[in-house]
Amino acid sequence: MKTLEEFVALFAEQFDDTDPSEIKADTVFHDLEEYTSLTALSIIAMIDEEFDVTVKGDDMKSSVTVEDLYNKVIAKL
Known about the structure:
Elements: H1 4-12, H2 37-51, H3 57-62, H4 66-75
């Protein structure tokens, strides 16, 4: 199982123009300038590939921080 820190790093890789150091566990990712529906899809694909967990759009919408999303993923393992 991946740690929160590993998840944050994988999450940050989904952004092309955002400095990875700006993305932390407590980052409100919906507020990131680069966050779009396409970014959300790449995050969902990354979670499926790395964790073998299916995350739905509602999971993305209801998560506020990166850690919230991580906790939802871990709960589905």
